Automatic annotation (TrEMBL), chains A, B, C, D:
Functional pathway: Carbohydrate metabolism; tricarboxylic acid cycle; isocitrate from oxaloacetate: step 1/2
Protein name listed in UniProt: citrate synthase (unknown stereospecificity)
An example Gene Ontology molecular-function term: citrate synthase activity
A cellular-component GO term for this protein: cytosol
Keywords attached to this entry: Lyase, Transferase
Organism placement in taxonomy: Bacteria, Pseudomonadati, Pseudomonadota, Betaproteobacteria, Burkholderiales
Leader peptide range in chain numbering: none
InterPro entries: Citrate_synth-like_lrg_a-sub, Citrate_synth-like_sm_a-sub, Citrate_synthase, Citrate_synthase_sf
GO biological process: carbohydrate metabolic process; tricarboxylic acid cycle
Keyword Ribosomal protein: no
Gene source species: Variovorax gossypii
Enzyme type, top EC level: transferase
Amino acid sequence: MTTKIKKSLHTELGHSTPDRITVRGRDLPSEILGHLNLGDMAFLELTGRIPTPQESVTFNAIVVTLVEHGVTPSALAARLTYAGAPEALQAAVAAGLCGLGTVFVGSTEGAAKMLYEAIPFGEKPSRPLADMAKDIVADHRARKLIVPGLGHPLHKPIDPRTPRLFQIAAENGLSTHYVALMQAVQEEAERVSGKSLPINATGAIGAIAAEFGFPWKIIRGFGVMARAIGLVGHILEEIDDPMAIEIWQRVEKEAGGPRQD
Amino acid sequence: MTTKIKKSLHTELGHSTPDRITVRGRDLPSEILGHLNLGDMAFLELTGRIPTPQESVTFNAIVVTLVEHGVTPSALAARLTYAGAPEALQAAVAAGLCGLGTVFVGSTEGAAKMLYEAIPFGEKPSRPLADMAKDIVADHRARKLIVPGLGHPLHKPIDPRTPRLFQIAAENGLSTHYVALMQAVQEEAERVSGKSLPINATGAIGAIAAEFGFPWKIIRGFGVMARAIGLVGHILEEIDDPMAIEIWQRVEKEAGGPRQD
Amino acid sequence: MTTKIKKSLHTELGHSTPDRITVRGRDLPSEILGHLNLGDMAFLELTGRIPTPQESVTFNAIVVTLVEHGVTPSALAARLTYAGAPEALQAAVAAGLCGLGTVFVGSTEGAAKMLYEAIPFGEKPSRPLADMAKDIVADHRARKLIVPGLGHPLHKPIDPRTPRLFQIAAENGLSTHYVALMQAVQEEAERVSGKSLPINATGAIGAIAAEFGFPWKIIRGFGVMARAIGLVGHILEEIDDPMAIEIWQRVEKEAGGPRQD
Amino acid sequence: MTTKIKKSLHTELGHSTPDRITVRGRDLPSEILGHLNLGDMAFLELTGRIPTPQESVTFNAIVVTLVEHGVTPSALAARLTYAGAPEALQAAVAAGLCGLGTVFVGSTEGAAKMLYEAIPFGEKPSRPLADMAKDIVADHRARKLIVPGLGHPLHKPIDPRTPRLFQIAAENGLSTHYVALMQAVQEEAERVSGKSLPINATGAIGAIAAEFGFPWKIIRGFGVMARAIGLVGHILEEIDDPMAIEIWQRVEKEAGGPRQD
């Protein structure tokens, strides 16, 4: 039988022969193992090239930021899943990842998208950043949308990760007009609203990711890959010092009874 | 209302206050960001301590090994999922992870479990490794089980990742009786079966993970965290050069018609 | 320790005591088992009441419609996942569900949302349906959005499910202004575009779901619950007559080689 | 290009042409919609035939049993996931399903497997059921395994679902040697252990599923498809009366602080 092929299938990521395993055009054993750390490997996987030392420090910093943030809803979902299917650790991590959507991680991609819409990657700003920021904030207010990357329910008046990430980016030559525009947007948003609106970690990461030129659609993936690591950590802790069954029993006892309020 | 608490809930992984974010007892911005690469961060998350330089190189190598292995069933599941829900990248990665079970990643944990059963962590081998290997192989044959970590459908007579991983482990002081026992098991299995049974990458990783003392139940998690990175790479490629819809249409056309064989 | 509770936790869905299991206020063994079919049980779970015979026929029809649609991307993702983790059937179904997003199932909720925006549930149409349809189509064209529930890549000039679903709804008293408005929107969209734009199954289901008054946010869930059934069917077939490994090997062989186009 | 095909791909489940949609060889609009309820459709999907009225009542009862069981870990995982990604309802259901493994649903398949090993489907018992039960219980005790389908942490001395399910099965001609053997196993296990070991719902369902002849590997899927319905119900309640964020905040407050015990 002959299958008529309209479009051929191709990948640049990796392929294997009996005696070779190639990833992104490099021999995995001799050119990658022992040479690249996990963050650099992620950079290679996404871009097809080895990061410079400056890129390596900065990219590792932004993904490291997203690994662990305590017993989040995502971590709880993974722990509760593991309690029911300990033989399928991978499914527990998968369950934890499923919730990394618009509420908790989405603003990473939103901030980058907003910045790229103002300044397409590869171009220079066409007018003063303060003017752009004014338009961006006014536009979000007109559409009753929150500005992505600003504000945090807990970390006020500043998100402690943001100045550090911006410092690392600046020290490594990855702080040009995208970081500056994000900061201009913050100033304008605070001026107009009269409220403290810190650039949160997802805003900082979105801006730095834009400095690299990563497509906005993939930036949520930084949080996904980083949190997969953190979720494995939560599962290891759950094995040694479990909380899932206790949480379930407390909730069931309270929620299954007569309404309390 | 007072909830009677039988067991209190606790985590050592991370917690936040308005001006501080602590991970594993360390201040995230000042002590972690800019200092640890992503693999070291994973090590900290799992063990509570910063790896030594030797541990860092070796641990990074074993997780880097597992990031990318071409268009695997896992990568295809992620791509097909993304085609239906591009707004939920996290769910596409989750779908890809769900298949990292006993067939494709499980032998990592199996090899470590087998080695720990022979030599409990922290103890010295109680008798010659060749004798242990003989018993292990005989026991698996008696129970009609394959020996975990041996054999590969494609990579014959050796899996090219294995000698490189063992070299890195040896150069960094992480190659003692677990690696040696894995090798003894291979020799015995080849002797008894008369077949080429290379130590595959999951066998090598299982043995090196045992050198670190990682609990066998968490070792599958190395593959899960690493592959999460690889799946983000596949999704980025799927955005730029898609194959999912084409695969679907080919399969539907063929499978929906009359049987061909 | 006393946990201060800001909001109590409560569920109306189900709770258990040693000798009773209650679902939606009914005794599961004596009032539900043997009395309700699976579709009626879904209706009870979602609404808190037993459907009338007319509602039962219609609701069962709309969920039955969504169970099986051949080797979709969702079915392929489930099969490929099962090939890697056959011990975790639940994770294979989960992987298949992850892709039921905006591309393949989302328009069910989109159609209902559009209809509710025109005619809030419980109210009568405030003006002729043809006028409403004109505005809806013009608005979507102005915003360059497709009208949800219209058009199908394969089923032209009509989607064969739609007239049958509308017939069942009409015979059972569940075809009032929402179904009529969906049909008016179709007529207007075809008139303005000059193209054949059949109401597809998700459009029909969205309109009938609106007749019931189901919140638009949950309507995607009809497809999710129905497809979970279909995916279990695909996994059973995959056990008996597998295709996942064959698909993987074909794709890997083609995609891992030099580019073909 | 010609792809050499070692094995052709085929499905019996469903396929479509522009004007027809066929499921299991039946025209979906005219032969299925309006005729089959959702449980009957599941039966058709799994077996390729329409159930008899007796099979319909019994099969619907066993899947209806598994739809809803209060705020289980699975329901909590779905709710916590929805809180983070409300735009991806399907991923929240998927997260909830991921935990339906060996701890909470697996014994359904375990009970059926145990029964089929004693009496292969299609054969008659080769010796008295009491003798078989004696061997089964002794064998599990020797291997220090619990007997699948027996015992329940809450429902003592009987699981109220079991007598009702057995009654329905008996009334419909689906209670022969598999149900009887399950009961003999219970008697023997209680005799030997001196403890109350009720046949739980998964034991009853496993036994009745064996009466149908369903392969044991697919029986977990009954719980998966049923719980998908229940999880959609939990998400609808979470939209109207949320508990996920409250649970998260309580846990985070307690678990992130100093250890309490």
